[in-house]
Structures are given as structure tokens and as C-alpha cells.
Amino acid sequence: MGRSNPGNSRLVSVHVNWLAKELGESLVLPLQAAPLPANFVHLLESHIFAQLSNPLLPPLVRLHWCQLWCFILLVGISGHHPGNLTCICTPSITWLPDRKCIIITLITGKTATVSKPDRFVVDHPPLLTALRLYARDCAWNGIDLAEGTPYIFFKLTEHKLPEKHIPGSAQNLNAAFQQTLKSMGIFEGKTLYSFCVGNPITTAMNTPDPAALSAAGGWRSDASVLRYSQVAIVAAAAEAYAEAPTDAVR
């Protein structure tokens, strides 16, 4: 037993694989992600709409753009981890009677379980409009989001038929997000997780209310709010200081 390598044990292997999967789904690197404010999505709007307005775009390619746009908007305004949002189940989205608001219930992911669901309200008009268009494009491709499709953001792979019974990958959606930034010439290493960092920074500039910070960052406890919002703010301040011009007099 003394000669065996504990690093080769099955438990260690399972744990390392689980950590790698969680790291990939949350899109978090060892260093804190660079922040992005929610209004950054406005820079993408005209580019993505130009793709969607192309009459020669194949229906399945158009569906890819619709799904990506909905996901970017949801990550941008909700503050929740991209890996959690890919697991949103179709029955977990409830439209209120006035059709001006939806309630999303997360039951899987890092911050939610069936016994302790994470509910949040979305009343962002561009996202609601994008969801309606996405549902329409799904129908054009023979997919009914209301019936027989377990996940809102189901798996879409280039040159393959949609796999509606499998949730999409946060890594793939992030790769599409970054590729879009590259094609626009504005890629600077940001990821979808950058919205989770940027939202609480923006909120903290306006209010110290823990409830507001919790909603902006998608956190469930006051301890997480205190820890991660302060880390994000300090990281942003350090980045701004590093980029500031050096005073030649000193």
C-alpha cells in the first residue's frame, strides 16, 4: 500500500474530472474574469441582427444565431453563471398574464437544487422579444419549445441536427460569443462569465444593498455577496490602476 500512488485512485480521478467540468461550465479561469457591463450587449446587437436579417441564411444557422442572442442577453442581465443557465428546463419559464415578464426557476446548477430552487424575474424587453423570435425559429425547424423539448437552450452543433433532449454547452456558447467578438474586431479576452463580474461592480457603484448585489451577481448568500463583489471591485480597480498612465514627475 505504501508504494501505491494516491493520485491514481479512482476517487481522486473522479474529483479532478468533476473540478475540470465545473471550471469549464462556469468559464472561470484561475484569475478573476475581466468584467463586462450588461450594456455591452448593445455593441453586439447590430452585428447579430445583420445576420438574422439575411434572407439567404439557412434556417438552422439562423437558429444558432437566435439561441446565441437569447443566451447572451440572459447572461448579461441576470448575473447567473452561464453553466447554470444552459440547464434551464422548458417548464421552468413562466410567462405572466400580461406577457411583459417571465419567472425563471433554476433547479440544477451550482446555486440551485430541486429542494432549494433559484427563482428570478426577467422583465427586460429585448430579451422577451428575442425569446419570442427564438421560439418561432425553433418551430420553423420542427422544434416545439412548449412540448417535448426539455431544455430551452438545447444542444446545437454546426452541420448537425439539433439535439433537443440534451442541454447546450456553456463552453460552446462562450466560444460562439468570443468568435463573434473576434469577427467584430473587439475581442479582448472576455468571456460570458465577465457579465457575472461586471454586473455587481456596476450595481455596487449605485447601492451597497446586499440584496441588489446578490441579484446582480446571481449569488444566494450574504457571504458570497461580500466575498465575490469585493473581489470583483478590487480586481477592476487594480486593472484600471495598471492601465493608467504613469506620472513622469514621480
Automatic annotation (TrEMBL):
Keywords: DNA recombination. One of its GO terms (molecular function) is DNA binding. It comes from the Eukaryota. GO terms for biological process: DNA integration; DNA recombination. InterPro entries: DNA_brk_join_enz, Integrase-like_cat_sf. This is Uncharacterized protein. It comes from Chytriomyces confervae. The lineage of its organism: Eukaryota, Fungi, Fungi incertae sedis, Chytridiomycota, Chytridiomycota incertae sedis.
